[in-house]
Amino acid sequence: MKVKSLLLSSVILAAVSANATPTLGTGTPGNSVLGAPTGPSPNLGGTLINFDDLTPGTSVGAAQYAAQGVSSISSPGGLTAIPFSTQSSPNELFDGSPNGTAHITIDLATGASSIGIGIADSDPFAVTLQALAENGTALGSPFTVTIPGSGVNSGNGYFTISDTSNDIFGLEIQQDAGSINNSGLAIDDLQFASTSANVPEPSTYALFGAGAILLSLLGRRKRA
Fold first, then answer.
1. What is the 3-state secondary structure (H, E, C) of 99-135?
2. Is 169 in contact with 175 (CB distance < 8 Å)?
3. SS3 of residue 2 by DSSP
4. Cα separation of 141 and 23, whole Å?
5. Which residues on adjacent β-strands are paired with residue 95?
6. Strands 47-49 and 168-175: what pairing?
7. Which of 18-22, 102-106, 116-120 has the lowest mean pLDDT?
8. Which residue of 45, 93, 104, 140 has the smallest Cβ count within 10 Å?
9. CA distances from 153 to 99, 115, 173, 209 (A)
């Protein structure tokens, strides 16, 4: 019985681990500079917060968007609504931390299968994105992205992190320590969406199937 219990536990843990594999996607920001903002792409089909409800120049409290499912949004350097967004105007959230130290943390009230964020600045720089699990620990590996320095969306980038189940409970956005820009960074168009039901991956089905076969074999050996 002990062997069966250990085997079943191993299969379940392996199945959970198989789902915790976030992937990065690069989208297109809703660029207000080119005319009427179209909103970010892709549209995740869930909650979209563009920060345009805020009064420009005001500081943003951690629980500002609790009613929309964001339990906390904060930065050690503080966040301010400024009316200079080049994504969905007028507002963006600005973290004016000193050179290369901007670090914004977004915590969700419930798990999501995907989360998206627009990042804006006047100069290209590297940013690290880290999805967070329910307990606030890292979910998968961090992703390093670079804001384009030329082209139509110069100074603007839009990125998504997706998972096969509703494992994403937050996002950390951290400016690269080597950034040459000393004016912090800004975010806009926060999106997040959950799947209606967690559908196991094929690999998860395989793990459960293998476990069932092994349990069956153990049962047969015992009866023999």
1. CCCCEEEEEEEEEECEEEEEEECCCCCEEEEEEECCC
2. no
3. helix
4. 9
5. 185
6. unpaired
7. 18-22
8. 45
9. 23, 20, 19, 48
CA atoms of 117 and 129, how far apart (whole Å): 10
Tell me the mean pLDDT in the region 81-109.
90
CA dist 109 and 64 (Å) reads 13
What does residue 104 show for φ and ψ, rounded to 5 degrees? Answer: -105, 135
pTM for the whole structure: 0.79
- Select from 214, 210, 205, 215 the least CA-distant residue to 19: 205
HSE-CB for 212 with a 13 A CA cutoff: 6
Tokens 């009230």 appear where? 109
Neighbouring C-beta atoms of residue 156, cutoff 10 Å: 26
What's the one-letter identity of residue 161? I
- How many residues in total does the chain contain? 224
Q: Which two tokens stand for residue 168?
A: 């994403």
Q: Closest Cα partner for 200 from 63, 12, 46?
A: 12
Please, are residues 136 and 74 in contact by the beta-carbon 8 Å criterion? Answer: no
pLDDT digits over 152-167, tens only?
778 889 999 999 999 9
First to last CA, the chain: 16
Least confident of 13-17, 105-109, 197-201: 13-17
List the Cα angle 184/89/144 in 5-degree steps.
Answer: 40
